[in-house]
Design goal:
The protein has 17 helices and 26 strands. With 546 residues, it is of the alpha/beta class. The structure holds adenosine monophosphate. It holds the Pfam family AMP-binding.
């Protein structure tokens, strides 16, 4: 017997309709590429999103057509989030930090019909334009006054002209909630990037889960500044969650350096933010150098890579900002787990509580986790056994766009599909998951696994160390041994012996790196993560040759 409740399709347009109706005067503040600060409201955003949809309809865009964006976090990007998805087309956010060949590849692969871009990315557009055969026009996200003269790009349109000429009375269509809404490509550290195609339903369910108290914990009292880019897995869902709960939004645009971010945090009284550790490091350094702290910030979500325990301590002890360590993937929309404490942890000694908090955390409702050994056998949740992490849930990828790479799922005895994350993890009895490595980054020494992340976390807690990266280097006897690449803080004095002494007693003896190499910097990829693959290429023979 079916229940007797109303059916309402879960559509992304309903989020901006809700934000307009219930939080119409709540602000969206943006640092613009043009240099100034722009402010308007959810009501204005809704009106202009409808104008976007109307303009695209006039341009001949139809349901399911892909529309690309190369843009920073800003109000025009937000209008595209809602205008494109709301009309039933597919929003394809492109990471502009990818190599130009990869950008051209994914525009072609997605068959984008139009490409919106911030002026910063004009040089990139010029390089790829010829190769983007499916793109009918490139739309510069600016006004007539700032349009580039002699851009050299054929079919260049102006965003503000397009909007101005379009009607704001557009009515959002109703369609199947399983329709594709958004396309994001993985960062492609191995092979070509693969497309993950979200649905309206998966995006809305993800937003409900992300807004929960033990996840982002966002409300209408919050001022949210997503540092995580809108081209990196929908800024972890924040543009949707903010509409759902009515939080004020502050977009940093291209200003991601410590000074620009700090000024915006203070001027707009930001209470909550989210980003990868590398960006936070820049901000924390800026605060330290200037003897500054936050006046309104309460919480920050840190994910995308392991949050070093030293960073967690600095945020909480020095600045009074609660750290929510979270784990996710493009394939998970992206949220999987958040390290939010349970009441029993609050009674623990603070240092023990920190150990739990440093883990990647508990699954948000909707996500099932399990860890398996090399033979696919499920491992116990004892916080000790490490195995590959598998996940399932209504916002987890089922297949990549155009079936790239074939079916990624592993099917269990009940016929359920599980997505293999490629991460190696433990899960403790309370369900707190801890990533010990990417499966390709794990160091296999004499048949046993060494967690590069554990070694890095301890090394970065040394006061003279800015960052530490541990990789597998070839070894004649043990196959692989850990090699630690460390970046010193400016003017800090520390030797390899000092660092080895610091690690002594904190890790198993046989985990001790065979060598420590001080480097000026480590390569960082398109999503702000250290490119271990490149370091392995560079240093894999280090122990054989030195
Ligand atoms: P992406 O799809 O670019 O977001 O990358 C997803 C991958 O980033 C995951 O599979 C993890 O390897 C890594 N990752 C994400 N969050 C964390 C975290 N909190 N700690 C460690 N690794 C993480």
């Amino acid at each position: 017997m079916n229940g007797l409740m109303l059916q309402k399709q879960l559509l992304i347009s309903s989020l901006i309709v809700h934000a307009d109706r219930h939080h119409g005067d709540t602000e969206i503040v943006s640092r613009r590429v043009e240099g100034d600060i722009h402010r308007y409201t959810f009501r204005d955003c809704h009106r202009r999103a409808r104008q976007v949809a109307s303009a695209l309809t006039d341009l001949g865009v139809k349901m399911s057509d892909r529309i690309g964006t190369l843009a920073w976090n800003g109000y025009r990007h937000m209008e595209l989030y809602y205008g494109i998805c709301g009309m039933g087309a597919v929003m394809h956010t492109i990471n502009p930090r990818l190599h130009e060949d990869q950008v051209a590849y994914i525009v072609e692969h997605a068959e984008d019909q139009y490409l919106f871009f911030d002026l910063t990315f004009l040089p990139l557009v010029k390089v790829i334009a010829e190769r983007c055969k499916t793109v009918k026009a490139f739309i510069a996200m600016t006004d007539r006054e700032h349009m580039p003269p002699d851009s050299g790009v054929a079919n260049l349109l102006c965003y503000e002209d397009l909007i101005e000429a379009s009607s704001s009375t557009y009515g959002w269509p109703v369609f199947d909630e399983d329709s594709a809404s958004t396309l994001c490509y993985t960062s492609g550290t191995t092979g070509n990037p693969k497309g993950v195609l979200y649905t309206h339903r998966s995006s809305l369910l993800h937003s409900y889960a992300a807004a929960l108290p033990d996840a982002l914990n966002c409300s209408a009292r919050d001022v949210v500044l997503p540092v995580v880019p809108m081209f990196h897995v929908n800024a972890w869902g924040i543009p949707y969650v903010a509409c759902m709960v009515g939080a004020k939004l502050v977009f940093p645009g291209p200003g991601l350096d410590g000074k620009s971010l700090y000024e915006l945090f203070e001027a707009e009284q930001v209470t909550f933010s989210a980003g990868v550790p590398t960006v936070w490091q820049g901000l924390l350094n800026y605060l330290e150098q200037g003897g500054l702290t936050f006046s309104t910030m309460k919480r920050t979500l840190i994910g995308g890579a392991t949050c070093p325990p030293a960073m967690l301590r600095e945020f909480e002890d020095r600045h009074g900002v609660e750290v929510l360590h979270a784990w996710g993937m493009t394939e998970l929309s992206p949220l999987g787990t958040v390290s939010a404490m349970k009441s029993k942890h609050l009674a623990m000694r603070p240092e023990d509580c920190r150990v739990v908090q440093s883990k990647q955390g508990r699954a948000v409702f909707g996500i099932d986790l399990k860890i398996v050994d090399a033979g696919g056998q499920e491992l116990a949740w004892d916080g000790v056994n490490a195995g590959e992490l598998l996940v399932r849930g209504p916002w987890v990828v089922r297949n990549y766009f155009r079936n790239e790479g074939g079916n990624p799922l592993q099917i269990d005895a009940n016929g359920h599909g599980w997505f293999p994350t490629g991460d190696v993890a433990t899960i403790d009895a309370d369900g707190f998951m801890q990533i010990t490595d990417r499966s390709k980054d794990v160091i296999k020494s004499g048949g046993e696994w060494i967690s590069s992340i554990d070694i890095e976390s301890i090394a970065t807690s040394h006061p003279a160390i800015a960052s530490a990266t541990c990789i597998a280097a070839k070894h004649p006897k043990w196959d692989e041994r850990p090699l630690l690449l460390a970046v010193k803080k400016p003017d800090a004095k520390v030797t390899a012996e000092d660092l080895l002494a610091f690690l002594d007693g904190k890790i198993a003896k046989w985990w001790t790196p065979d060598a420590i190499v001080f480097v000026d910097s480590v390569p960082v990829g398109a999503t702000g993560k250290v490119l271990k693959s490149r370091l392995r290429e560079q240093y894999s023979d280090y122990l054989l040759t030195s």
